[in-house]
Amino acid sequence: MTDFQKQILEGIPAELPEKKPYDMAINHAPKRKDILTDEEKVLAVRNALRYFPTKFHSILAEEFAQELHDYGRIYMYRFRPDYEMYARPIDEYPAKSRQAAAIMAMKYTARGPPAPPRELAALPTAISENRTRGGV
After folding, report:
1. What is the pLDDT of residues 94-116, one digit of tens each?
2. Which side of the chain, N or C, has fewer Cβ within a 10 Å radius?
């Protein structure tokens, strides 16, 4: 089993990982407009916290609220994976079904480097076009 597969299978870690610095060397999404009410911001943080053990909530609530303020979204940067994010061959994804591995591969297809093969990049469009023509 590769390090990538081990990290994927680990899921949410039992211990809180160290906070990771904001990486200025990579391209980030632009900050979103501040359109949420205070109540909606509290709800956004509460929704983000539901994925984590209660023992982490006091630390993560403050961190997620700061991300929402700074970037207009909660990205959970602390949990950014250490492995390089790119589309791998489908057999490299640790999954119980081929369909699950395909979903993971498609999530990484939009990321780079390296750029995904042209066929993979066009796949969602081809599927969508096939559906509009009465296909699968």
Report:
1. 999 999 999 888 887 765 554 44
2. C
Cis amide leading into 21 (omega within 30) = no
Q: Give the DSSP per-residue string, the chain.
A: --HHHHHHHH-S-SSPPPPPPP-TTS--PPPPP----HHHHHHHHHHHHTTS-GGGHHHHHHHHHHHHHHHSS---GGG--SS--SPPPGGGS--SSHHHHHHHHHHHHTS-SSPPPHHHHHHHHHHHHHHHTT--
Beta-carbon contacts of 115 under 8 Å, excluding residues fewer than 6 positions away, are 121
Amino acid at 117: P
Kindly report, residue by residue over 50-106, the tens digit of the pLDDT.
999 999 999 999 999 999 999 999 999 998 888 888 888 999 999 999 999 998 888
State the Cα–Cα distance between residues 126 and 120, nearest whole angstrom: 10
